[in-house]
């Protein structure tokens, strides 16, 4: 059995109910450093709730979350993000009236105070350079001074990923980054994710199996709050129980 040190993230019997619904029920899994873990499952399976529990956006009912050998389940969301966990949301969290430059700069400053809007642009050379570097990485440097609201949907998603990336995250958690985008843009996002996660650990939720099977080293399948299966992409594609829950589905 490998030591805990071999894992960047571990959940142990993680559970959360909403009223009578067991949204996440005794979920235990481990993620290795730099691994890409895909998370799939039908609507309502508990995928986003699991993200919310790991990132601290909602409190757990019971269980443990261990990140780099430290229990983090009692830390508030902001402190978890400071340990190196960052995420995107299904719906955009951008400041639409601000430019790409400003959105990235604010995200870079979240260590001081979650999105401190009073930090003047031009005062922090290091963070400006980081914002430029990330804008180039996500392919948006040409739009650096364009307001987020003027960007098409696909570019907004890229900016959301840029915001998550800018804070030196070790574990990047992406919740349906390509949902609702046309095939070509999904492809662009998928390529970008592949490029940026070479040195990072990734957990990605998506309904697009092409994206998941292309990016993931392992795939975790959730159903009705529980883990139905976890394994390498081929194993999961051939798993009869997994096939059954998708029959007539997505
Ligand atoms: N804040 C909440 N209050 C009440 N019920 C909730 C809440 N959040 C989630 N649920 C319920 O918990 C269950 C799991 O929902 P969750 O959003 O985690 O599923 P999901 O797998 O992410 O689904 P989708 O693929 O549609 O995003 C569902 O039955 C959902 O209705």
């Amino acid at each position: 059995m490998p030591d805990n040190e071999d894992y960047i993230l571990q959940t142990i019997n993680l559970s959360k109910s909403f009223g009578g619904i067991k949204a996440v029920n005794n979920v235990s899994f481990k993620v290795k450093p730099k691994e890409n873990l895909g998370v799939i499952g039908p609507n309502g399976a508990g995928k986003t709730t699991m993200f919310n529990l790991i990132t601290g956006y909602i409190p757990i009912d019971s269980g443990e979350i261990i990140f780099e050998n430290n229990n983090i389940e009692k830390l508030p969301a902001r402190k978890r993000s400071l340990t190196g966990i960052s995420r995107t949301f299904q719906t955009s969290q951008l400041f639409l009236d601000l430019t790409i430059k400003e959105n990235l700069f604010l995200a870079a400053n979240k260590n001081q105070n979650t999105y401190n809007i009073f930090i003047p642009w031009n005062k922090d050379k290091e963070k400006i350079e980081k914002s430029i570097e990330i804008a180039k990485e996500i392919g948006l440097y040409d739009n650096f001074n364009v307001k987020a609201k003027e960007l098409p949907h696909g570019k907004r998603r890229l900016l959301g990923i840029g915001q998550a990336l800018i804070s030196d995250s070790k574990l990047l958690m992406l919740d349906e980054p390509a949902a609702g985008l046309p095939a070509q843009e999904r492809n662009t996002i998928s390529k970008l994710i592949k490029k940026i996660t070479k040195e990072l650990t990734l957990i990605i939720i998506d309904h697009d199996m092409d994206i998941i099977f292309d990016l993931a080293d392992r795939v975790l399948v959730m159903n009705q709050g529980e883990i139905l299966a976890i394994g390498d992409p081929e194993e999961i594609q051939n798993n009869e129980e997994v096939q059954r829950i998708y029959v007539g589905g997505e």
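The pocket of adenosine-5'-triphosphate is lined by residues 18, 21, 23, 41, 43-49 (CB under 6 Å). The beta strands are 9-18, 21-31, 36-40, 62-67, 70-71, 85-87, 171-175, 201-205, 218-223, 226-231.
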